[in-house]
Amino acid sequence: MVKVTGDSVLVLIDVQAAWNDPVWGKRNNPEAEEKMSIVLRKFREHNLRVIHVRHDSRNPKSLLREGKPGFEFKKEVAPLKGETIITKHVNSALIGTDLDKLLREMGNPSVYFAGLTTDHCVSTSARMAGNLGYRTFVIGDACATFERRGKIGGMIPADMVHQVNLASIDGEFAEVVNSGELEFQ
User: Fold this and answer.
1) Where are the domains of the chain?
2) pTM for the complete prediction?
3) 3-class DSSP state for residue 119?
4) CATH node for 2-184
């Protein structure tokens, strides 16, 4: 069990409608949004800080571009009034945003990441948070990703992409946990 203390913050990464589009290919962990929603509810019930991060692509054709339907947050984890929303333009939620400043103002909290996609923005943000000295967690069952085309041919299944990325983060940049392991004080 992992004790979620009063100095903890949940950072939900890019849980946006664009990821529902079939253009991305096959996805793993169809229960990820449900797990995110459960964790989000527990953070709210315990009056812990929640930060919602969304991606605004600089590419005018991107589904994740402001003004397009895919830019919107998924309803399962939509921000409530008063919850912090950060918009980013690159993979890391800590580059070009005030996330690091907000976290430092909170007194160097434990940071729990969940969201989409495991191998891009979740991984990049967790790696940077770990490097910046935060006690960092990635809630593995509250993340998901898509299959990827390998550089030497063939498709890499989404679950393999997910598992390899969680394994490469765990113990080096963050502690990978599952939502059921979180024990709220």
Assistant:
1) 2-184
2) 0.97
3) helix
4) 3.40.50.850
